[in-house]
Amino acid sequence: MRFAYVGLALFLAATSWSAAIDFQRDDYVSPMTLGSRKRVAERAALYPEVQYKYALFQNYLGMYIDRPLFFDRSLRPEQFTYLTAESYFRDLAIMRRYGFTGSGSLALGIINLYKQVNGFLEADPARAAGHQEYVQFAFGEMGRFSADDKKLQQAREILNIAQKSPYAGRMNGKLLITTYNSAYIPQDTMREFLGALRAEFGDIFLISGGLVVDHADNRHYREHGSWPEEIQAKYRAKLIDVLTLFDGVQLPVGTRQRGTEYTTYIDCGIYEKYILPMTLELTAEERFAGKLLGAVLTHGYINHLSGVNHGEYGTASLRKSLDQLLKVNPDFIVFFEWNEFNENTCFQPTLTNSLALQRLIKYYSLVINGGEPAPEPGDDAQIPPLILSHRETLKVGEVLDFELLNVPDSREQQTYTARLRLLDATGTAVVEFPQETFDRSQLRAVTYRVATEELTPGVVFLPELTVTRFDGRQEVYADLQYVRLMPTFCYNYKATRQPLRDLLRPEQMQFTAVRQADGSDALTATITATEPLAAVEVTDYGRDFYAVDPSQEFDREKNWLLIGSLTTRKSGNHQIELSIPGSTDWQFRPWWRPNIKFGNWKRKDGVLTCRTLIWGAPNDFIVSIPRADAAAEICFKVGDEERRMKLADFLAVGAWAWQYSTCRLTWRLCQELPDTPPCPDALQSSLAVKLTSARRYPIYQLRAVTRSGRIYRSRPILPVAMPEATRTIAIHSELHDKVLSVPVCAALLPELRYAIRPPESGGAIMTTDFDPFFNAQLGGGYVYGEAFDSIPLPEGRQVPEYVIEDGKPALRFDGGSYATMPKESFPRGSFTLDFEIKPDPGQETYVLFRHFARILGSVTLFVEDDELKLAFGDREQIATHRFPSGLRIERGQWSRVIVSYDLASFRFQVGDRISTAPTPQRLLALYFKPGIFGGHTKVEFGPPDGARYYSGLMRDLVIRHW
Predict the structure, then answer these.
(1) Helix (H, G, I), strand (E, B), or coil: what is residue 383?
(2) CA dihedral of residues 831, 837, 842, 845 (deg, nearest 10)
(3) Alpha carbons 810 and 808: distance in angstroms, whole number
(4) CA quadruple 292, 293, 294, 295: dihedral positive or negative?
(5) Contacts of 156 (CB under 8 A, 6+ apart)
(6) Which of 49, 56, 818, 897 could make an S-S bridge to 935, C-beta 3.0–4.6 Å?
(7) Which of 632, 614, 615 is closest to 623 using CA atoms?
(8) Residue 562, Cβ density class (10 Å: 0-12 exposed, 13-18 middle, ≥19 buried)
């Protein structure tokens, strides 16, 4: 094998690392012991809940942080559809490799897709043979369900389909139905609903109900380590209610607890001490004989959009849940979910999960339903069955976990060794972990925990694994996913899980990235594999940047790519029209994001027309304009409202936004891969291209994926050296739970100076030259995870008005307008918020700034009776800490306001007046959230009753992450 890297410019910190960086080590062996309880059925039902709005062909780039490992663009039809038969059956074939007995449809709530997949099964009995499509009933969100005629009629229709289908999932001859959110539905409502179905259909189905632990009771256990008698009695009564009303119970094998880390961790104490013994005792009684026991399990919940993150911790969250469930010898296990990319709960193979979960679940399925462990087809059995898991990107202060997991492929007790090292970008070892000896027949995980503040000010780190194979040969795995350590921001908490047996070892690989005089980077790569390649791609900071495209659909060297995004809070169909005077060869294409249909569009005489649904989800599209057409103009109509911009003006800014009366259209310059192209389907692939990154200091990585799912990741290349300068900031050490002052890479430390632009130079946006990711919207924020996706919109024009005051640009807020900054613009640690305001004379109590959306981030800055005040919502969401500054803001006058926080105290400045307020305890943000200037006024964790949106002028807004 030959490997070459060119253009590796390294960050060399002024300070060197300690010779020995401390780490914590955990060693866990799964007992793999089934409980003595006799199951209701001989064979347990094991299946994933499937979201059929996601298929193997949609465009997952841009909005999501992962995609299906077996993505195949050739499966995409000409017209929009959620799912195709080919995509569906490919997924079923993948599921069979897990030991699953079928798959689950959330039929109640999404009945049309349930009907569609049943149609696929009936039309193709050869590929459907042996499959079971389990019915699942979804009961809305958090109790929003009623047993009305509409819901009952839908349930009747589902049961009529299922009882006639040879493919419906059954247990002991009866339809098996699991539920989503049934625990939140009042017992009387559920009794009415199930009673009506049982009266009509008789004893043809078995349905399980959920049992959940209330937030207050979970917190009580965390604080005290036990439950008093009254709480124990409460859950015994709840369990009796579920066992009485339903045919089985979905057990809460673990609860999520918040410790010192941003992500929650799973704790099984309540289950072990209380729920498990109660369940075994009750189901041993005659009245509950034959009741089903099982659970709905997750391996994590990583929501890069909302900020809610329940940690994966390698594979520990899943393994520990399964180990607990084995204690009841379960009748069923639902794996939540097969393919949900908003929340990254996917059990489906993805780029980050590889086939790790398949290998792990397959082993558990053999323990539960019987069978002998063996290597997977195509495995090199001399390579140990070891999986390395760790996060790709972190911010300083977070904990970097490395998990080494042996998944047995044999009952033979044969050992091998593995040793992990962590290198810096120069190849120097910064952490040396001990050599571990694994038994291939034992499910065992060794986890190392490193405090990232000990790695700073470095940015790039390289895991290297040395393994002794079963044939005695020693191999060094150096091309693993690198670790990226950012100073202050991170929204991707997903782990990369990589089985060694699923690594692509190229016969030849060459990758270069060289900076050009014009600021672009010349990228070249060649890779030769032993099996057909499905994708050859370059990433930049982990995001898809470029890919080999046999179809040459998008040529960014010859064309400008503009991304348009239509959103609104008032869903409806709208007639749109796009024309580009000055260009004849421009191209248009909808984005093809899951769950979003652009509509049927046509182009005639240079004008594209379409009637499309515009709603809260971003309805995106791609416009390609030849670079030679520099004088072109973009004209876009929604209904009778037309907006125009010159291409040259847009390129000078890189972003634009228009607010229409019914919706909003934002534009951005596409400097990343807009869509995953068709597969190269060749043994060798190469690229040579000159492109410009949106980032000042790119970090490129070559990634290749084969048709069989093997992955290659190169070591990263930095074509421009990261400057050596550092800045010392206060951070929270999650591992040690204390505040520390540490040096970080100054070049990657955000200082967001928002430029106020006239309408003819950007429209309804504010830009920052740090990174276009942090550009702000004037108005808007309608998309899931943004500031106003569910908060009531204020009365007013929403978009602040551009004005000139004293020769300087400013924004006029009218008491119903606002500006929103994207997630992580406002940090979750130290910060400085700096701006000038001139409140209107009538203002006395109003909101200036919030780190908030529908739920809490951290800070609310407001003025009450002309005094500047700050409120910080407690991370436990049980208290709000308020800090009056004692500083007055005069109405009708300009005041410069500076508020900063160093994790110990707040500093307030209005003009030349200064005050400070120490915090009574360490205050940390709950979630990463957008920032909002001017509002909102939701009375929660901050503003007083009667507070209004800001009315007045604002200019010179700066957010610093220190």
Answers:
(1) coil
(2) 10
(3) 6
(4) positive
(5) 197, 200, 201
(6) 818
(7) 632
(8) buried
CA 19 to chain centre: 36
Using CB atoms within 10 Å of the CB of residue 841, give its burial: 0 to 12 exposed, 13 to 18 middle, 19+ buried: exposed
Q: What is the dihedral of CA 514, 516, 520, 524, to 10 degrees?
A: -30
H helices of 696-816, where? Answer: none
Cα–Cα dist 350/356, whole Å: 10
Contacts of 141 (CB under 8 A, 6+ apart): 181
Report helix, strand or coil for 912: coil
> Cα separation of 387 and 445, whole Å?
9
Spell out the SS3 assignment of 33-87: CCCCCCCCCCCCEEEEEECCCCCCCCCCCCCCCCCECCCCHHHCCCCCCCCCHHH
**Look-up: residue for tokens 């009580």?**
220
Cβ atoms of 455 and 744 within 8 Å: the answer is no
Q: What is the CA radius of gyration of the chain?
A: 28
Cα separation, 505 vs 712, whole angstroms: 7
Tell me the C-alpha distance between 313 and 394, whole Å: 13
CA 562 to chain centre: 25
Q: Return the biggest CA–CA distance within the chain.
A: 84
Distance from C-alpha of 673 to C-alpha of 684, rounded to nearest angstrom: 21
pLDDT of the residue at 6: 53
189, 334, 322: which is closest to 248 by C-alpha? 334
- 53-85: pLDDT as tens digits: 999 999 999 999 999 999 999 999 999 999 999
Domains for the chain: give ranges and CATH numbers: 211-336 (no CATH), 375-503 (2.60.40.10), 559-669 (2.60.40), 750-960 (2.60.120.200)
318 and 363 Cβ atoms separated by less than 8 Å: no
Share of the chain above pLDDT 70, in %: 98
Q: What type of residue sits at position 42?
A: E
Residue with tokens 């970097």: 400
- The answer to whether 436 and 479 are in contact (CB under 8 A) is no
Q: Are the C-beta atoms of 889 and 869 separated by less than 8 Å?
A: no
What is this structure's pTM?
A: 0.96
3-state SS class at 223? helix
User: What does the buried/exposed string (b/e) look like for 797-830 if buried means 16 or more CB atoms within 10 Å of the residue's CB?
Assistant: ebbbebeeeeeeebbbbbbbbbbbbbbbbbbbbb
AA letter at 498: Q
- Give one word for 616, left, alpha or beta, with left for phi > 0 and alpha for psi -120 to 50: alpha
Instruction: Give residues with Cβ within 8 angstroms of 352, minimum separation 6.
Output: 65, 66, 344, 392, 494, 495, 496, 497
The chain-wide mean pLDDT, for the chain, equals 96
- Confidence band for 796, pLDDT divided at 50, 70 and 90: confident
Beta strand pairing call for 332-336 and 45-50: parallel
Q: Is the peptide bond before 310 cis (omega within 30 degrees of 0)?
A: no
CA distance to 308, 823, 836, per residue, from 958 (Å): 26, 15, 10
Q: Look at strands 386-391 and 399-406 and give their pairing.
A: antiparallel
Place of tokens 């980050």: 352
pLDDT band, very low/low/confident/very high, at 143 (cuts 50, 70, 90): low
Q: Which tokens in the block code for residue 21?
A: 């960086």
Helix (H, G, I), strand (E, B), or coil: what is residue 735? coil
Q: Are 298 and 319 in contact (CB under 8 A)?
A: no
Predicted confidence (pLDDT) at residue 391 exceeds the cutoff of 60: yes
pLDDT score recorded for residue 875: 86
**Using CA atoms, how far apart are residues 223 and 607, in angstroms rounded to an integer?**
64
- The helix-helix angle for 187-201 and 149-164 (nearest 10°) equals 40
Q: In 3D, which of 108, 74, 15, 94 has the Cα closest to residue 424? A: 15
The vertex-393 CA angle with 392 and 398, nearest 5°, equals 115
Per-residue tokens: 717: 């290349």
Strand segments (E) across 61-151:
103-108, 133-138
